């Protein structure tokens, strides 16, 4: 198998329309690395998205090789966006730790919160959960596997 064939076969595409599905998307996107300039909200189309270097947890074993791929995490039916502690520095890199959903008093709307390392957060007020996560490029090897157990 040639490298490009392997990359195509390993491309991930997920769709979530409820909190359970969002949890699966969150697990697949965990430890994705994103720069502030790759975070976009289009008010007119009510879409929010970010491009990230996704760690491929579904392929990760205890030892190398590990892989990352370029991916898009996109939300539709977004009514508003708020952020806290998200750097505007073009050299900053945020690591996505979790994505959660808090339902509103009147379902199916609510608040989706993206949690990043360093206490950064982005909150999306959504009409409903409608999110996709899709790899958009070939996978590449990486030596580092995210480790949440490391002590600083």
3D architecture notes:
The chain has 152 residues and is mainly β. The chain has one domain (3-142). The chain contains 2 helices and 11 strands. The chain has helices spanning 3-9, 19-29; strands spanning 13-16, 33-34, 39-42, 47-55, 66-75, 78-84, 94-103, 110-116, 121-126, 131-135, 140-142. The strands form 2 sheets. Strands 1, 3, 4, 5, 10 and 11 form a 6-stranded antiparallel beta sheet that branches. Strands 2-7-8-9-6 form a 5-stranded antiparallel beta sheet. A hairpin with a 4-residue loop joins strand 8 and strand 9 (121-126). The longest helix has 11 residues, at 19-29. It starts with a helix and ends in a 10-residue tail after the last strand.
Concise account of the structure shown:
This protein has helices at residues 3-9, 19-29, and strands at 13-16, 33-34, 39-42, 47-55, 66-75, 78-84, 94-103, 110-116, 121-126, 131-135, 140-142. With 152 residues, the protein is mainly β. Strands 1, 3, 4, 5, 10 and 11 form a six-stranded antiparallel β-sheet that branches. It has a five-stranded antiparallel β-sheet with strand order 2-7-8-9-6.
């Amino acid at each position: 198998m040639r490298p490009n064939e392997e990359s195509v076969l390993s491309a991930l595409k997920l769709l979530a329309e409820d909190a359970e599905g969002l949890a699966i998307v969150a697990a697949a996107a965990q430890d994705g690395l994103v720069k502030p300039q790759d975070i976009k909200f289009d008010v007119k189309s009510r879409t929010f998205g970010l491009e990230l270097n996704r760690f491929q947890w579904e392929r990760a074993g205890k030892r190398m090789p590990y892989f990352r791929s370029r991916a898009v995490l996109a939300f539709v039916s977004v009514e508003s966006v708020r952020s806290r502690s998200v750097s505007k520095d073009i050299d900053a890199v945020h690591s996505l730790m979790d994505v959660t959903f808090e339902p509103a008093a009147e379902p199916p709307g609510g608040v989706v919160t993206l949690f990043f390392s360093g206490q950064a957060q982005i909150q999306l007020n959504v009409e409903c959960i409608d999110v996709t996560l899709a790899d958009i490029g070939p996978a590449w090897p990486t030596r580092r596997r995210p480790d949440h157990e490391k002590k600083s």
